[in-house]
Amino acid sequence: MSTDAKALRGVYTPNDVATYTMEIVDKRSAERGLALRTSIGRLDYAMRPVLPGEMVFVTAFTGNGKTAFMQYWARQVVRQLQERATMDEIVVYITWETLVEELGLYDLCGVTGIDAGSAWYGDVTQEEVTQLRVAAMKRAAMPLWIVGDSLKRRRTGSLTMEDVSESLRVVEQEHGLKPAIIFVDYIQIVPPLNQRDDMRVQVLKNVDLIRQLARDCGAPIIAGCQAGRQVLARDFKLPEVGDGQETSRIEQNADKVLALWYPCNSEPIGSHVEEVSAIVDERLMIMGIRKQRHAPSGQIFALDFDAPRNTFASWDSGVVLE
User: Fold this and answer.
1) How far apart are CA 225 and CA 247, in angstroms?
2) What is the largest CA-CA distance in the chain?
3) For range 103-127, the mean pLDDT
4) Which domains, from first to last, does the chain contain?
5) Smallest Cα–Cα separation from 80: which of 139, 33, 29?
6) Nearest one of 149, 24, 176 to 90, comparing CA atoms
7) What's the CA gap between 175 and 10, in Å, rounded?
8) CA of 109: how far to CAs of 99, 103, 118, 234, in Å?
9) How confident is the model over 46-68, as pLDDT tens digits?
10) Cα 3-13-294 angle, rounded to 5 deg
């Protein structure tokens, strides 16, 4: 590419703007029924579909379900792709925290209903092992690819966002597969390109790299975000849009921000959460839509969370607050 061509790469004529805009309008209108959803009725009703190139953050304090929710959402998109018989699209889950084997076990337990904690420690019957083996055969056919660490393989060096981008390029080149959606778990532990940068700058740069990856791949990216301890000082501990650790850039660049709070971690069992008219137990999860570009935000509602099996559903006794 010539120097002049490179200089004009980011310049668009009035005709370019009009043409590209109508192309995307026509495409999204035609594919409106193919939106990638969570299969949680109340959330899908309140949240506009995630779109190619969008960046969505799932914010929660540690131990409050952000990883579990993203894993669940990934499996729901897999199911949608399988129902469409889509052969050239995959779901990509990138993790710096959870082993590949542990993620796989959640997938198997989500199918079988077996307690993941018990299975992880080998506390399962022979019948349950057989069920897991059958589920593993189904998992092998799922278009859900994982980028991360395994007990089986040794990887040298840290996995940066540039490494991830290169990995996905090779997958597309060698296997002909493109991401339909990408999950990043989670933003604060993504290794920096420059170790000398302070934490705030590291996270800021990684947010920019995630945004660029979403646009380069033409897929939405769902990224986990660790909320700060300040949320624990509140009576209602659902994170706000600005509660992510070292993540002021999220407030500016995110297309959507979802927040999670698992009340039984901090509140007495049997206590009442007035904001969603629900009683605290081990299945109550509270979610909020804290930001939603081009659509209303601020909705708060309860979810039914089955932690041992890593599944989510609408909470029958909950109410949606606009």
Assistant:
1) 8
2) 68
3) 89
4) 36-256 (3.40.50.300)
5) 33
6) 176
7) 30
8) 16, 10, 10, 34
9) 998 888 888 899 999 999 999 99
10) 115
Could you give the CA distance from residue 234 to residue 134 in angstroms, rounded to a whole number?
Answer: 45
Confidence of residue 30 (pLDDT cuts 50, 70, 90): low
Angle between helices 199-217 and 161-175 (to 10 degrees): 20
Contacts of 317 (CB under 8 A, 6+ apart): 277, 278, 302
pTM for this prediction = 0.85
Do 214 and 53 meet the contact criterion of CB atoms below 8 Å apart?
Answer: yes
What length is written for the chain?
Answer: 322
CB of 299 within 8 A of CB of 288? yes
Strands (E), the chain: 55-60, 89-95, 144-147, 178-185, 221-226, 256-261, 272-273, 278-279, 284-292, 300-306, 311-314
Sequence-distant (6+) residues with CB within 8 A of 194 are 202, 205
So what's the pLDDT on residue 251?
A: 73
Cα–Cα distances in Å, from 244 out to 231, 240, 290? 10, 8, 12
Residue 219 in tokens: 């897929």
What residue has token string 């579990």? Answer: 68
